[in-house]
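TOKENISE THE FOLD
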Amino acid sequence: MIFIPRIAILWFVSAGLAAPAQAFFDFADKSQAPTPAAVDTVGLFTQIGSGTASKIAGYGKDVPLGLAVEMLASGWTLVDADGNAAGIKVSWDPNGTWLDQLRGISNKHRLRTLVNWSDKKIYVGNASETTSDKLAALAEEHRRQAFEATPQGRRLRALAARNPALTTAPPAGYRAYAFKPGLLSTAVAQILKEEMDLDLVWDAPPHVVKHEFTVYAKDCLGAVQEAFQAYRNAGVVLTADVKANGVVVVTRGGYQAKKVEPQQ
């Protein structure tokens, strides 16, 4: 399925089309939305996504929660949702993983906690003052800010400044892939080579991207399929077939090439 900012307008020109084809994407239909990261909530404790937590090797006593997170969960950051949780004194023992101990701390001190594996941040707040929705909204805001600091995010933010209907944040677990003006085969070859070291054989007419556009996908193969969906909406069926020898062959329905050469 394709995920492109709502109401984005993509123009394409190809040898097989008599005139430029205009494709509009509006995914109000939630059945086309990407599958979000798994959310697991038990009591006050929520995890978004999953991962492996390291085991604890020692004891801790009356350590401020902010410092405890630094000591127990290397590489993770504590986000204090209401400004009152980071200084709470907590203790732990060498039983289980830091995630197990954090869950126990959450229950003992009545802290609503959200562990987000995608950005390695732990969002906490007093259970009497902080709701699960508040933590989720805070996590989403942090994710959006982090994405907007990337080159893709800056590009989409510039587009959004010209068209408020566009969204600038990709769905969780998805990456942004930009297809720049020029031959579609060149853009596809570059994406496949850079990410998975796959070679491309373009057994289809030359298709030209007139204006840059961005798609969201979990990997480069998904990005290629998303881009091809735009052509499918315009009546051009492009198919990518991944061969066992690490070559991706792209064909177009009803087209027979005279000579097939790898795209350089």
About this structure: Residues 132-148 form the longest helix (17 residues).
